[in-house]
Amino acid sequence: MLNKSIMDGDNPDLTEERMKGAFDTDKMAAVIYGSEKFAIRRREITESISRIPQLADSKPFSFMTREEKISESCRKLSVLSEHWNQLIDTNNEEEALHLYREVLGLEGHAFSLHETMFIPSLVAQANDEQQEKWLGRAKRREIIGCYAQTEMGHGTNLRALETTATYYPSTQEFILHTPTETALKWWPGALGKSSNYAVVVADLVIRDTHYGAHPFMVQLRDEKTHNPLPGITVGDIGPKMAFNGADNGFLGFNQYKLPRDHMLMRHSRVEENGTYTKPPHAKIGYSSMVKVRSRMAMDQGLFMVSALVIAVRYSAVRRQGFLDDKSREVKVLDYQTQQHRLFPSIARAYAFIFCGFETIQLYDQLLIDVKNGDTSGMSDLHALTSGLKSVVTHQTGEGIEQARMACGGHGYSMASYISEIYGVAIGGCTYEGENMVMLLQLARYLVKSVELVKTGKSKELGPMMNYLAEPDTQIDLTSGPEAYVKVFQHAARRQVWKATDKFHQLMESGQSRDIAWNNSAVELTRASRLHTRLYIMETFIRRVSSISDVSIKKVLIDLVNVHVNYEVLDIGTYALEHVSSTQLDSIRSQLYSSLDTLRPNAVSLIDSFQISDMQLRSVLGRRDGHVYTNLFEWAKASPLNQTHVLPSVNQYLKPMMDKAKL
Ligand SMILES: CCCCC/C=C\C/C=C\C/C=C\C/C=C\C/C=C\CCCCC(=O)SCCNC(=O)CCNC(=O)[C@H](O)C(C)(C)COP(=O)(O)OP(=O)(O)OC[C@H]1O[C@@H](n2cnc3c(N)ncnc32)[C@H](O)[C@@H]1OP(=O)(O)O
Ligand SMILES: Cc1cc2nc3c(=O)[nH]c(=O)nc-3n(C[C@H](O)[C@H](O)[C@H](O)COP(=O)(O)OP(=O)(O)OC[C@H]3O[C@@H](n4cnc5c(N)ncnc54)[C@H](O)[C@@H]3O)c2cc1C
Question: How far is CA 16 from CA 20, 234, 607, in A?
């Protein structure tokens, strides 16, 4: 069986789609998840979870209040604590993330930041003695931690953080203090009610000198009572657009004393007498952010996939309207507009995940290099992940919203669950650096690269920047996907140079560097987007080229074709400077035929992600495809339907109507 999702009793329309698939979905899962071993482990973990009934949702998330969501996730975490070792290799981050996604979903929980930022901060920033003291406890989950950096008044501009950590050699202590309301830490996930420790980022002050943002390990709550310690004000910031299973919080310090060895001292140090040793790279303290950014292409790709699993399966069972055959309505997936809405996003999701694998590996390597004293790779990875997180989160948001609309009215219902996926995913445009700001970080690197070329130092260009020094050449669009890469290279190069020239000219005209930068900023962000999209396209093609299995490679080439045609058309205004409008018309025709070619494999391509019904939490997107029965059952379970007459009818509507009758 090529599509391993085929089951007796499933909706025949979905079974028909799965029969059409031309490749083995288990083999595709191995490509998606980086190895056959991990793809198998994912399935095993999912299977093991299903054998522990206490790990099942006690009711649909959509019917839970915020308090119920928080309580439910804590309940499951306590059940999980009995089963960690039996379910996963606890040293394997990907296995742990899969387990969290399955059991806890995407709406957040008490450990949301513990694994993703608290432990990574200790790993990257704590010295050996500090790791000895805290890392084991954190890994065993004896303590719960979060990452408290953003303040009410400042998230982006870390140099303006107001929370101070002032060192006093006389007592060998820091005093943490929140001098104003705007200095309150505001937003950190799992801070409000769950965490008893935090890595707090504060401005280090020694003898009136401000050394800027540094990380500190801070105990927030009593380990026995969980009450906030004296000098600490902590709480939940209230409901959000989504992610309401998490207690994003606020935190204030009132002259809170912290022993000297609680500053994380792997890279910078404060000696007993107050002597400060600066880190080997000024931004080394920002590593936890780079770690999360390096994960985001993968995580956002998976968010988009979840929405696409729902929309593609639904589109294969939803019948509406007619094409040739007037005796039976067609599956809406057969409409070209539906394919155009969904298939380019499938391609992007695959591309994002392949990019994610690369950046996760780059971060892991960087961590090793930095431990060995080599910080030379930091700027490259910072630039790459700044651009990537921005493009990927934005396009994921677009893709999920299109998936919702592709499900018509039912997409708008919480039964689809797409609105929650959207709400959580779209947060990525803001967290880990607001997208515009991060595009501008990449732009700094691009401008510097052009300056290297201009001054005859092209040999010093960083990885992936060589194309900036190359001349424009003729593009032969019949030569395959590489020709489309060339179009992107031309467009990105032109835009990067144009934005840099504008910036330089404004400075030459007398504007200060910062004002000239601001007046070039829109052009600079466009340059960053094009550069990043070029990287995504190149990575996608490179990864597909490396595949040896013929049937897998064939369908992925079909997907690459959808991608390259769609992407070039999507940057039409830039591409037009390098290809003619007649060539664009021919790309358009190729896009439509590539959608046709992909159509029979659409369901298998999204089934290959092997996202379980439990993880998907969508009534509309369930594997069995019995959409209408499932939808009706779900609606009947709504709390509003547990009684025929609501108290509010008796209290308000009925008296109102009765009065009107008099
Ligand atoms: C994503 C997590 C997924 C987890 C998955 C877990 C489970 C899966 C299950 C389900 C999923 C469920 C839910 C997921 C949903 C919710 C999310 C959960 C967690 C979210 C976590 C969010 C946490 C946060 O947001 S933490 C706070 C983040 N804050 C920021 O990012 C602040 C942004 N600001 C900055 O980074 C900096 O201020 C700055 C903009 C970079 C500027 O810094 P500054 O010091 O002012 O420097 P300047 O601009 O002057 O540049 C000088 C120089 O330095 C270079 N530089 C800057 N940064 C770096 C760096 N990091 N490395 C190297 N070099 C750097 C810069 O380029 C300049 O160089 P040059 O002078 O031009 O050469
Ligand atoms: C779901 C979620 C989870 C979060 N989790 C955490 C967490 O665990 N820990 C934590 O510490 N923080 C967390 N945050 C906070 C988050 O990191 C910040 O909100 C984020 O970095 C953006 O900063 P800001 O809110 O200050 O935005 P602002 O910087 O105020 O952005 C407002 C606008 O100003 C623009 N802008 C700002 N500066 C510039 C500039 N220099 N150039 C051009 N435009 C600019 C932005 O582009 C944006 O349009 C979380 C946020 C969210 C939404």
Answer: 6, 55, 13
Residue appearing with tokens 């960690």: 84
pLDDT of residue 514: 98
Provide the domain limits for residue 195: 143-282
The CA R_g of the chain, rounded to the nearest whole Å, is 27
Tell me whether residue 36 is in a domain: no
Distances (CA, A) of 179 to 187, 198, 235: 18, 19, 18
For residue 307, pLDDT over 90 is answered with yes
- Residue 191: which CATH number? 2.40.110.10
Task: Evaluate whether residue 215 is within a structural domain.
Answer: yes
3-state secondary structure 282-305: CCHHHHHHHHHHHHHHHHHHHHHH
Residue nearest to atom 24 of ligand 2 (CA): 155
Question: What pLDDT score does 311 carry?
Answer: 99
Nearest atom of ligand 1 to the alpha carbon of 296: 1
- Residue 212: its H or E element: strand 209-219
Tell me the CA–centroid distance for residue 170 and ligand 2, in Å.
37
What atom of ligand 2 comes closest to residue 243's alpha carbon?
A: 1
Q: In this predicted model, what pLDDT tens digit does every residue of 528-566 receive, in sequence order?
A: 999 999 999 999 999 999 999 999 999 999 999 999 999
Whether 477 has a pLDDT exceeding 90, the answer reads: no
Q: Is residue 303 a contact partner of residue 291, using CB atoms and an 8 Å limit?
A: no
User: Is 60 inside any structural domain?
Assistant: no
pLDDT tens-digit map of 405-424: 999 999 999 999 999 999 99
Tens digit of pLDDT for each residue in 210-253? 999 999 999 999 999 999 999 999 999 999 999 999 999 999 99
Distance CA 322, CA 337 (A): 14
What gap in Å lies between CA 416 and CA 412, rounded to an integer?
Answer: 7
Among 357, 133, 190, 172, residue whose Cα is nearest residue 273: 172
**Mean pLDDT, range 292-317, rounded to an integer:** 98
Residue 545 inside a domain? The answer is: no
Tell me the average pLDDT across 517-535. Answer: 98
Q: Given the CA of residue 116, which atom of ligand 1 is nearest to it? A: 4
Kindly report the backbone phi and psi dihedral angles of residue 20, in degrees, each rounded to the nearest multiple of 5, phi listed first: -75, -25
Q: Are 266 and 123 in contact (CB under 8 A)?
A: no
Pocket mutation for ligand 2, best pick of 115, 434, 444, 519 (most atoms within 8 Å of C-beta): 434
**What is the value of ipTM here, to two decimals?**
0.96
Query: pTM score > 0.90 for this model?
Result: yes
Counted domains in the chain: 1
Q: In 10 A of CB 372, how many CB atoms?
A: 8
Q: Is 249 annotated as a binding residue?
A: no
SS3 content of the chain, % helix, strand, coil (to 5): 60, 10, 30
Q: Taking the alpha carbons of 536, 541, 545, 547 in that order, is the dihedral positive or negative?
A: positive
156 annotated to bind ligand:
no
d(CA 386, CA 618): 32
251-284: pLDDT as tens digits: 999 999 999 999 999 999 999 999 999 999 999 9
Distances from the Cα of 195 to the Cαs of 199, 227, 361, 448, 475, in angstroms? 11, 11, 29, 41, 56
**pLDDT of 428 higher than 90:** yes
Coil, strand, or helix at residue 315?
helix
Active site residues: 432
Question: ∠ CA 598-603-605 to the nearest 5 degrees?
Answer: 65
